Amino acid sequence: MLDQPPLTNLQTRDVESLIHPYTPLHKLKSTGTLIMQRGEGVHVFDTQGRGYIEGMSGLWCAGLGFGDEEMIEAATEQLRTLPYYHIFSAKSIEPAIELAEKLKEIAPVPISKVFFTSSGSEANDTQVKLAWYMNNARGRPNKKKIISRIKAYHGVTVMSASLTGLPGNHNGWDLPVDRVLHTDCPHFYRFGAEGESEAEFTARMAKSLRELIEREGPDTIAAMIAEPVMGAGGVIVPPKGYFEAIQAVLDEHDIILISDEVITGFGRTGNWWGSQTLNMKPKTISTAKQLTSAYAPLGAVMVPEDIYQSYVDHSAQLGTFGHGFTYGGHPLGCALGVKAIEIYQKRDIIGHVRKLMPLFESRMKRLAEHPLVGEARYCGFVGGAELVADKKTRRPFDPKQGVGPQTAKLIENNGAVLRAIGDTIAICPPMIIREDELNELFDRFEKGLNEAEAWVSKEGLR
Ligand code: PMP
Q1: What share of the chain is helix, strand, coil (3-state, %, to 5)?
Q2: Which residue in 54, 135, 148, 356 is a FRET match for 38, CA 20 to 30 A apart?
Q3: What DSSP character marks residue 65?
Q4: What is the crossing angle of helices 120-137 and 305-318, to 10°?
Q5: Is the CB of residue 264 below 6 angstroms from any atom belonging to ligand 1?
Q6: Are 262 and 287 in contact (CB under 8 A)?
Q7: Is residue 312 within 8 Å of residue 73, measured between CB atoms?
Q8: Whose C-alpha lies nearest to ligand 1, atom 10?
Q9: What stretches pass through the bilayer (predicted)?
Q10: How far is CA 142 from CA 14, 64, 126, 146, 252, in A?
Q11: What values do phi and psi take at 315, rounded to 5?
């Protein structure tokens, strides 16, 4: 372990009063937290005045960076006009109407209606309920199971955490609940068999999905949910042809594909949607995060007309559509969503991402050469460098050694915030980052990696 300075007064107040998500709570009293105070462009500054490049866009969400004046103005104006109203019981507000219209315009597949939530977890929870509701409406009450994937991340509510395919979200939480199935993770580097080609691996993924569906019974399965690029599972980019192969199996059995675009929406992969980059043809879509560029919480579920009609039919039978969140369609979130999309369009943020993608790619490829890095994977403007004890055999470190988190800490000490997902260091910079800033971010990443390599050698962790 690296040396820790004593906690400041604010750090002590923090550990005395907050429960921190995704944090080893048993270590918190000795490690303390890094307390951020303000942000500007792609930089954040802590309470000690130290600056960092925010190389993760916070939690993969602050695509426009910090302190965007147009966003601040849009928020202020909305707060002055109508800080809160809802869209329950046949009420509505203009920002929600406008944002739904914009989403329909830019959606990658035909979308006719939008349901707003406050978060990605709520969006995915809603997806499951809507799939059940749809199949009840269509007289198929047994077609209810949802397929997800090992290492997927879909959120932390009871159902979305069940869809998530990570042990940390299941162990100790009595999850997953039933009606949730997990199929294989399409990570060729980790799960490809010896001598297997990527095409053979992809065919095996489709085969195991087919076997799962046949074993469970196609008439019991409503939907499959998938992130175009798996984010919080370790930035896993599926092999070419993966979604085409998967989708052919789903189509045979009338199982809808839900694309979880919570990270991959709004330019992150170099297109508006990850579905476009990965050649996915989903029926419905979940989104959040860059929907407002994280200036306010907001999530959305987007559905096509035929599915929407099933809700209309069912609510006619039942009397109402019994689902909705107090803050789903919050005016602040919706006004900021409208403004964020307007900015993405008028400043050509996606064009900017595309322009810098070759640099991002070349810097990721350079990371792949580092002695600690087994695989450096990326798609558009999101990447992950997986640290290994042995590059040749791909042998991982013992997770108890905490090599990933320590490496992230060393990178942080060099002035860049990145995120350790186990031993994969994720990078997901604000989409507005300039070329010199992106180079500086990778330079700091490499400096931290070099220090981690020295530390690993010194401690004899291999
Ligand atoms: N889906 C994906 C793909 C995500 O990455 C996340 C959050 N990292 C979620 C869903 C959950 O979103 P939230 O944290 O807003 O509930």
Answers
A1: 45, 15, 40
A2: 356
A3: -
A4: 70
A5: no
A6: yes
A7: no
A8: 154
A9: none
A10: 48, 44, 19, 12, 18
A11: -70, -25
> SS3 of 281, please?
coil
Token pair listed for 16: 């005395």
The pair of structure tokens assigned to 417 is 């915030």
> Tokens 């195991």 map to which residue?
208
As annotated, the residues of the chain forming the CATH 3.40.640.10 domain(s) are 69-346
Rounded CA separation 135/253 (Å): 14
To the nearest 10 degrees (0 to 180), the angle between helices 198-216 and 242-252 is 20
Q: Give the CATH fold of the 34-67+348-459 domain.
A: Aspartate Aminotransferase, domain 1 (3.90.1150)
Give the tokens for residue 4. 């820790």
The CATH number of 69-346, from 3.90.1300.10, 3.20.20.140, 3.40.640.10, 3.40.50.720, is 3.40.640.10
For residue 44, which of 54, 35, 34, 57 has the smallest C-alpha distance? 54
- Two structure tokens written together for 145: 């199971």
- CA 327-272-205 angle, to 5 degrees, is 95
Q: Which residues of the chain have a pLDDT value below 50?
A: none
In this structure, what is the dihedral angle of CA atoms 265, 271, 275, 279, given to the nearest 10 degrees?
Answer: -170
pLDDT in tens, 384-417: 999 999 999 999 999 999 999 999 999 999 999 9
Neighbours of 360 (CB within 10 A): 23
Among 394, 392, 290, CA closest to 59: 290
Tell me the CA distances in angstroms from 226 to 63, 120, 130, 283, 293, one per residue in order: 22, 13, 16, 12, 22
CA-59 nearest atom, ligand 1: 8
Identify the pLDDT of residue 41: 98
DSSP string for residues in 7-54: PPHHHHHHHHH-PPTTS-GGGHHHH----EEEEEBTEEEETTS-EEEE
CB atoms under 10 Å from CB of 39, counted, come to 18
For residue 282, the CA-to-ligand 1 centroid distance in Å is: 18
User: How far is the centre of ligand 1, averaged over its atoms, from the C-alpha of 83 (Å)?
Assistant: 25
272 Cα to the center of ligand 1, angstroms: 18
Contacts of 91 (CB under 8 A, 6+ apart): 85
The residue behind tokens 């199929």 is 183
Residues present in the chain in total = 462
Residues 6+ apart with CB under 8 A from 87: 93, 96, 116, 324, 328, 329
Q: Tell me which DSSP letter residue 276 carries.
A: H
